Fold this protein.
Amino acid sequence: MENASTIQPIQPSEQQESHSDVTSSLGQNEQQKALSGVIARIRESLDIDAIFKITVTEVRQLLKTDRVGVFRFYPDLAWEGEFIYEDVGAEWDSALAAKLRDHCFNQEFAGLYQQGRIKAIADIYQGNASDCYIQILERFQVRANITAPLIKGKDLWGLLCIHQCSSSREWEASEIEFVQLIAEHLGVALQQADYLEQVKLQSAQLAQAKAREKAAQWQKSIAITIEKIRQFLDLESIFRTSTAELRQMLNADRVAIYRFNPDWSGEFVFESVAEGWISLMEQQLQRPELKENVSECSAKDLAKPPLADTYLQDTEGDSFGRCEVYRVCNDIYSAGFSDCYIKTLEIYQARAYVIIAIYHGQKLWGLLAVYQNAGSRDWEKDEVYFLTQVSTQLGVALQQAESLKQVQVQAQKLAKAAERERKAAQRQKALSATVEKIRQSLDIATIFATSTEEVRRLLEVDRVTIYRFQADWSGEFVAESLAPGWTPVKEIVPAMSTMVTELYRSAGVAAADDYLQQTQDGNFSSGKTFVIKDIYNTDYSIPYIALLELMEARAYIVVPIFQGEKLWGLLAAYQNIKPRDWQEDEVDLLMQIGTQLGVGLQQAELLEQTQHQKEEITQTLKELQHTQSQLIQSEKMAGLGQLVAGVAHEINNPISFIYGNITYVNEHTENLFKLLGLYQKEYPKATGEIQKQSAAVDLDFISDDLPKILASMKMGADRISQLVLSLRSFSRLDEAGMKPVDLHEGIDSTLLILQHRLQPETNSFAIEVVKQYGELPPIVCYAAQMNQVFMNVLNNAIDALENSATSGKIIDNPKIWIRTEVIEGDTILIWIADNGCGIPEMTRSRIFEPFFTTKQPGQGTGLGLSISYQIIVEKHGGNIKCVSEPGNGCEFWIEIPMKRIVS
């Protein structure tokens, strides 16, 4: 059969000319309408998938065939292809996804199809088809078919296949033309789809370029924000920068950072809010229930990462990490939230928000919240991604801050350790210095003062005290070093006694201040040390705490002080302001100081014993010296008195004889001179021998000088008589007891005895004595001893004046002043002064010591002023003092009472 297989070209001109023929051949308006409808749907649709599905279905229905399919070539695989669209009857096999390769296709059909020719076969077994082609058709149960090429542009894209499987079929020309028109429009549709795909590709590329540009901008914003976050190490600066930057970049109304507490309550710790909106940080202070509402209604379920959010599912994950947790709400009123949460958000003035979880490691730390208050908002995925990046950096910042804090804490610990080591070294050094000071000082008061002050400085405490036990285990505070601003313990003790007694009386127990007496040491004798870091964290009773509060103590250390094996007292250091964690080296320091104080006490005790023995020896020595000086003076005065009395007596006898005969000698001489004158008158002419003898003896001179000699002898005898009287008066051997005497007479007698020193024969150094005697009544005293005082003082005055001259000091008029007067009604003052060289302070303080002298060896015994002091002070109950300055002379003030009661 020649017409079993026909191939016709597809030409647009012929299509237009034959359109009327086809229409007339079909002869039915319904078929025309159906064809027009198929073509219209092909032209209207831009979805090539929908076009092919609709086309194969409607063409099979219109042509009433068993299968209509679209076969697509893979040009790169040598005309291999597969059916990609199909509409097939239920009783026939599907040809979809069947890959076909016709080895004869290239030779038989490729060229023709590329030219646009259509092939119609009424019966595959009656035509001239090749065996391989028949085998392919048999595979799909095909008995008759129409195959039209699908041309996309100039390329053979595929084939439109019309299969009749049940039997052979004579294809009408109108049917072939119909298939041809459908194939033509499908080719146009393929071309349009290709154009559309190119447009979509270009649009996608443009969108991708814009997205990349926007992503680059977001990345730049992220980088800038992260860089600003990384510039800071403290969380406050990081939070401030983050919230401000995010609000500005996202053009949001509020950006806040919310921190969770362990019980899932929480609080806003930082926010950046636009003008016109309330501050959430202020609101949560005014309304504490906000913290509870937030944790209860919205955030607790974020604590178990990783969690999936519906937004991630909708965006198929997009660019966000799978383990990141966040919430996106475009409008709170359409999100299905609970009423409590909506009320909370209304308080926040929020209409839309994005909340990002902030993780500190694997633990949910808080939330980063961005709020849009003015209205709803469609949050972009780039914005959400941007926020997740920032929240990640905030988590890193939290870890860095924690690491920094740990480093700082470690550094602080190291610094504290170094400081402790430094302080320990300083304390050890200071301890050595303190111990040295304790050992250097032998005065217990100085030791206590030094120790308490050093301990307070070394331990930097507010109070350091030393408490001493008595024999009955009561005691007292004996030393204290106190920082400024605190009350001294001596002022606290009276109030302590009253207050503690009342407290313990109300409690029905013994008073706290009797505790040491009752326990006889409070366990301190065993060496126990009390270290209290905080008085309120102990098992102390309320009265005892009240006692410590009165002491202003909050923490303290108490260590025992042993004197040998005996508990002597307690050394305590108090911290008043706050509790204190006492370090081991501090306790050890205080214990060492306590030990050294014990050593110091032993030394002080030994010193006290030594000093006591020394004082006893010194007193004994003084008594011996005093006794010795008294014996010496007594013997001296006794011997001197006896000597003076004996000399006066021995002198008095011949002087009395001489003085008594001078008158007779004077009378006899006058008589002889009268007789001689009478001889000369009666016998004017003397013999030569008489004249010679008269010239030889110078009779005229003898007559003139002899009366003068007798007058001088009388004057000398008078003076010797006065001297004897003065010696008798000075020695007063007949007046050993206290009797009323005239002190002026004693002073005058002493001056008479010292006349040879006051007015020497050479007259080279005469001393003027100025007497200024007052009206003195007879004074009851030891006259001889008082004369001895005058003698010692006046002798020292003369010595001072002579030493001044010897040392080269020129004194125009050497003087000694003696003034007496009655002062204060019943006291006699004898003031003796000179204008000599004066006495230095160091010498003046010792002039009344026995055996102290500034004179050259052999010139003084050092007993004169010492004996004078004993006579005035001890014998007469008076006072003697020396007033002097070097170069300005010296004054002795002798005061004795007018009446003295003798015990």
About this structure: The first helix runs from residue 12 to 26.
